[in-house]
Amino acid sequence: MKKKHTVFRRGFTFRKYEAPHQSPFEKLFDLFQEIITHTSGDLEEALDWLEQLDKEYHLTSEDYTLDDFIEDLKKKGYIREEIKPDGKGGVAITSKTERAIRKRALDQIFGNLKRSRSGNHKTQYTGKGDEHAGEFRTYQYGDSLEQISITESLKNAQINHGIGALKLTEDDLVVEQTQFKAQMSTVLMIDISHSMILYGEDRITPAKKVAMALSELITTRYPKDTLDILVFGNDAWPIAIKDLPYLQVGPYHTNTVAGLQLAMDMLRRKRNTNKQIFMITDGKPSCMIMPDGQYYKNSNGLDRHIVSKCYMMAQQARKLHIPITTFMIAQDPYLMQFVKEFTHTNQGKAFYTGVKGLGEMIFEDYETNRKKRIRK
Q1: Are 317 and 304 within 8 A, CB to CB?
Q2: Which of 95, 327, 320 minimizes the C-alpha distance to 185?
Q3: Rounded to an integer, what distance in angstroms lies between the CA atom of residue 362 and that of residue 173?
Q4: For 96-163, what is the HEC assignment?
Q5: Residue 11: pLDDT over 60
Q6: Pairwise CA distance, residues 139 & 162, whole Å
Q7: Who's near 273: CB < 8 A, 6+ residues apart?
Q8: Is the pTM of this model over 0.90?
Q9: What angle do CA 252, 254, 258 make, to 5 degrees?
């Protein structure tokens, strides 16, 4: 047993740091969450991985076996029994596990984020808002009665007319300033084309983690903001937050045009004026749908027809005051040139990055965009 070294200095007690104790379940559950993200929610495959790791690294003991861990997962509501389409019994993760994975992604990617009150983003404008500013002014015609501070108004009345008889006039009324909490609508586009797992590099798992972290960030810290998520391959379609752990790459090309069209359609339906698009991709646009409904595909270099359509979409988003921030998980010179031109057309932003640091970049840009746009 290690001894604690205690030193006293001017009333302060200093002790050697000791990592918080984790139970056998907590240690395995942390690893389990990482594995289930890589297996896209396939519980049986995740448990197979865990079994192999246990054999190699002796993760469990006689006192706490892998069977004990699985039983605890059931008792705690992280997995459930289910009947598969073929009629056979099986197990699957629950919504509780989905939420745990999102929270873990948030801690991993935005770990330095300090929790604060929900909806704490303010504009420079005052008026009839939903957060008190702590400042007062004289009532003016047209002010809402909801803004009148009864306490301050009565105080004025006593000062102006004395405390003998209560008399309250319009000149005594005081209004408390309030601030609007600006709302941001964000659409996150995730590339699920085949290149996201090409050349033996897993790029889809970091992209999923970022999406899960961002969704958890917005729903917990900025509940008045909206986040829509879509994936794009040959086509584009929306997905729910709960579906993120199960996201998989398909044998698709990259229809960036369809993704942008859907993102803008989503944002057009939002009433608030602060809107933005995040796009995570690692490859060139190689597909689009022609007016006759047929797919036009070209994986050889940058196709001028597809690229031109992408530029048109970027310009259209700019006219709608929707900035696009592109996170390119590749550094090929010709792709960087395309993204540079795309970004210039939209007047948005672009980051060229590997899979590491992607989450921090997205968080930084999310905060920056909010601050920049709500102050206009």
Answers
A1: no
A2: 320
A3: 46
A4: HHHHHHHHHHHHHHCCCCCCCCCCCCEEEEEECCCEEEEEEEECCCCCCHHHECHHHHHHHHHHHHCC
A5: no
A6: 20
A7: 321
A8: no
A9: 110
